Amino acid sequence: MTDTILVSTRKGLFWIARRNGSWKIEKADFLGDNVSLTLTDPRSGLHFVALDHGHFGVKMDRSTAKDWEEIAAPAYPPKPEGIEENDAWGRPLAWSTARIWALQAGGADEPGVIWCGTLPGGLFRSTDHGGTWEMVRSLWDHPKRKQWAGGGAELPGIHSILVDPRDSKRVWIAVSTGGIWFTEDSGASWAQRGEGMRAEYMPPELTHDPIAQDVHCLAQCAAAPHRMWVQHHNGIFVSSDEGKTFDEITGVEPSAFGFPVVVHPRDPDTAWFVPEIKDEKRIPRDGRLVVSRTRDGGKTFDILTKGLPQQHAYDVVYRHALALDPSGDRLAFGSTTGGLWVSEDQGEHWCNVTYTLPPIYAVRFA
Amino acid sequence: MARIVFTPNIQRLVECPETEAAGVNVREVLDNVFASNPQARSYLLDDQAVLRRHMTIFVDGRAIRDRAGLSDPVSAGSRIYVFQALSGG
Questions:
Q1: Fewer CB near the last or first residue (10 Å), C or N of chain B?
Q2: Taking residues A166-184, what's their average pLDDT?
Q3: ipTM above threshold 0.90
């Protein structure tokens, strides 16, 4: 069981701790600053914080024994002279870190390795606990990378990174928008994955193109890594072959739109989602905030409401703002309207920690 | 030597005391500043060494024109101010 939760918000990093059976805000760091994401490295115990200082750029801090220290943030390589690169909308694409959107520890056999996904689409790897970062050029230079496009974030970005628990060289990433990509040689080479997903809003000839898919979040079962779940822009998809092919889950109530998905670490058929009405109406249906859970691989869903506001709730839960602890029992999620909830029984009951945090970008068990 | 003054807003993130540095243009002056204060660099310039979008630099009261190359000339007695726009919520 994990008794600490790190909550990244528009105005600081908040530490939530379980004391005497209840969850309380214990302290705040970086108060007033835009904290976009954290990582707690289970191998070293180090905490990493991504900060967006706006005018002054994207930065990263790492925990020390008593405080934080600024470390290098991933930086794009010099853009070669004469290269003009536009995004999918025809606007110039700057080779510069616009947001840190994914942080993932490497495997147990490669201490110090951290993966970092960014907007506008650069993947970075550190081998020294974030002291230095190297861009994964094989992916950035891949000719099809230029087909990645921005969605709601305007620029394309890597938001999900999965390291195979059986072999640390095997890594999956997911891109919004650009589908799923896979390497089996620590990033030396990449292949597109994700056949079977469907982008209903694309022109017919692109609807089923794996690179056109707007994956909102990609999650993998730790004990059964062949099983992957996708919360997609227009649906929920599940794979039983490591993301090579996906099946769409249809008939999902109250809706199949949302951002996050988490999967039980030992039961590949159990996954949680936080549904919103639809892409053009990103609020909970009927003002009722619910979490949906399947225990049977997507055949049926439980709609979990106990302890969640059931009237006039317009909370949106971003892709990194739903977390599951390693036990598979404790869940936490935070919303754009500053609400934070924790469950200790797989979502059957929720307790509200606060309604008054700044907009929440990410929730992570530490 | 030119005199360089940094916005107070940056000071809480990275210490940038008022200083003097040599150089015939903004790029040279800043490179000399960063030589003794390397951490400041990424707060002013992006990954391509272009002035960050919401930053601006005034040389003797005039906003620089070359935000990418920072080639605007600087004379020995110039006063350079590094500012940022204030926006957002």
A1: C
A2: 97
A3: no
